[in-house]
Amino acid sequence: MRRWRYIFVGALLTAWPVWAQTTEPAATEPATTEPAEQLPPADTQPSWTHPLLTREARTARLIEHLNREYGVLLKSRDWLNRSIALVCLARVPGEAATAAILNVYKQDQHEIVRMLAWHCAASRARAMTEAELDTFLTATHAHIQKNTFKGDMRAAVVNQLAANAPDKAAKLAWRKYFAEANFLAQGNGADDRELIQALGECLRRWRSAELVEFLIDRMGNINDAYRAERVLRIAANMDPAGGEPTVMPAIKFAPRGSEVAWRTAQSGYRDWLKKEKEHWVEAATTLAVRQSLSSSIIKTAELDPAKIDPNDQSWRADLELRSPDLRSLNVSFVIDATGSMQAGINWVKNELTRAMAAFALVSKEPRVGVTFYRDKNDEFIAQTSAMVGPTGIRNLIDWVGKMKAEGGGDMPEAVREGLTDSVQRNPWPPAKDARKIIILVADAPPHEATQAEVEKGVAALAKERRFRFYTVSLSSACHKELSAIAKAGMGENFDIAMDYSSMFGFAMGNNEGLPPAVYKEFAWTSRNAQKPVKAPVFGPRGAAEEHIETLPSAEGIRRLLTSVIIDAINPQYRDRVGPIVGVLISGLSGNAEPERRRHFVAFNPLPRRGPVRLPGEE
Hints:
This protein is of the alpha/beta class and about 625 residues long. It has three domains: about 50-290, Leucine-rich Repeat Variant, CATH 1.25.10; about 325-500 and about 550-585, von Willebrand factor, type A domain (Rossmann fold), CATH 3.40.50; about 505-550, no CATH class. About 45% of the residues lie in helices and about 10% in strands. The protein is built from 23 helices and eight strands. It has helices at about 1-15, 15-20, 55-75, 80-90, 95-105, 110-125, 130-145, 155-160, 170-180, 195-205, 210-220, 220-235, 260-275, 285-290, 315-320, 340-360, 395-400, 415-425, 450-465, 480-490, 515-520, 555-570, 575-585; strands at about 330-335, 365-375, 380-390, 435-440, 465-475, 495, 500, 550. Strands 3-2-1-4-5-6 form a six-stranded mixed beta sheet, sandwiched between helices. It is flat.
C-alpha cells in the first residue's frame, strides 16, 4: 500500500518535470504557418451611456454599435470568431441583425457556422416579418438540397417545414428525411428518435392525405415498414394515453409471420384512411404559426428595443469575447477495462474519431490518448497508449479495439494506478496555456483506502499544472466517489446511463406471447440489425437478447463533449460558447445507415408469462 501511495502522490505532486523531460513526445500535427489574424480590438467604450441622452437614444446607439462591431467579426477568417458574433447578434434587436444572420446562413462556407446561423435565425422567428421568414425558408430549402443538415439538425429543420405550408418543395424535403431516418439507430451518436417524432408532428400539422397514403404504401417494404407505421401513428395520434388504439398495429398480427402481418396492417390503415380522409385536408399556415419556430440551443431573447437596458454590462462583456486561439488541447481517456466495462470500451472506440474532429475544430494541435486499468492480480494493472494527433487517431482506435473487458471480480478497481499511468506516460506539454484534460470512465469506485489519495492528487494537478478532470459514472455504484474526484479536479461528473434504447427501438403494441427474437424484431429492435444477430429466430425466452450490446446514452455523450470543449475555449462565457459547441457536436454526429430488416415466419405464441420488460426493470 505504501508503495502505491508513494508512486501516485509523488507522480502527481512532484514528478512532472522529470517524466516530461525523459518521455519522448508523441507525434503531433505540424503547426500551421498561416499568419495570425489581426482583428481590430473591440470598441467597448460605452458611448451609448452618455447622461444627456434619452433612454431611447442610448438604446439606438447601443444597437448601432453592436451591429457595427459584430459586422467586423463576421468577416473574420476564424470560424469560431464568426460563430461568436452570430450568438451575440441573436439577442440584438432590429432588422440589421436579422439581415446579417440570414446573410451568414445563406453564404458562409463553414458548415458549423451555417447550422449555428439557422439556430440564431430560428430564435428570432417571432420578431421576423413575412419577407424575412420567406428568405429564411428559401435558404433552408437550398441547404436541404446540398445535404447541409445532419444528425439532430434534421429534426429542427423539419420543425421549420411544419410551420410553413406543405408545398411541393416541403413535401419532397419531408420524404427525403423520412428515407434517411433509421428507426433502429439509437444511442452512440446516431439517434433518429427526434427526427421520427418531428416527421410525425409535422404531418399532424400539415394534414396531408398524400403523405399518409405514402406512409401506408411504404409499409409494403420491410425496410421502411416499422418507421412508416411509427410516423403515421404519431401523426394521427393512434395510441391515446389510457385509451384503445385507433388502428391495430402490425405487431398484433405477428404470429402470422411478418409478411402477412404487414399486409394485414396495411389493409387496416387503408380502411382507416377511407373513413378519415375528409379530416385530412392540407392546412394553410399563418404568420403567427410561422413565427412560432424556436431554437433548442439558442435562448429566445428580448427583441423589443423599448425593453432593452442600455446600461446592462453584459453588452460590453460580449464585445470582449473572441476566439481563444487555442493551440494545444490534450485529452486522455482513462478507462476501467474490467469485466463489466465492454460497453464503455466500445463507446470510447466509437467516439474517438468524433472527439478528435471536434477538438481539431477548436485547437491547432489537438491530441488524444487512452489509458486502460484493471485491478491487482489481473493480467495488467494499467496500460497507456500515449496521446496522438489527427494523423495517429486510426492506430489509437485499432489499439482500443483490441482491448477486451476482463478481470476485476470485486467492486473497487485500480483507479489510482490508472490515473498515475496516464499522468506519467503521456507527454503533457509544460506550457501553462495548454489545455490538459483527463476523462475517467468507470462503473466502479477506487479502492476505499485510496479515495482520499486520489482526490488529493488530482486537486494538486488541477491547481499547480492546470489539469482538469472529468468523470463518467456508468453506474450509480460509483457516483459518489467519481463526483468527488471530478470536484477535486475542477471538472464535472457525468452520470451516463446505459441506454437500453440503443439495444431496442420502441414500437407500440401489446407484446405478450411473442418469442424473444420476434419480439425484438417487432418491438425492441436491435440497434445493429443490419448486422446479423447471433441468436436463433425461435428459442427459449431471452436467447435473442444474448448478444445485443448496450451503449452509453447519446445525450450523455454529447453533454460530456460539450462541457469539455466549452471549458477548453472559455468557461466564463458558457452561455455564449455553449450553443456553438452544441451545434459542433450535433454536426459531427452524422447520419445513420439505412435500415436493413428481415422477415420472420409464422409461429405459435408463447404461453402468457406477463409483459416482457427491459433488462434491469422490476
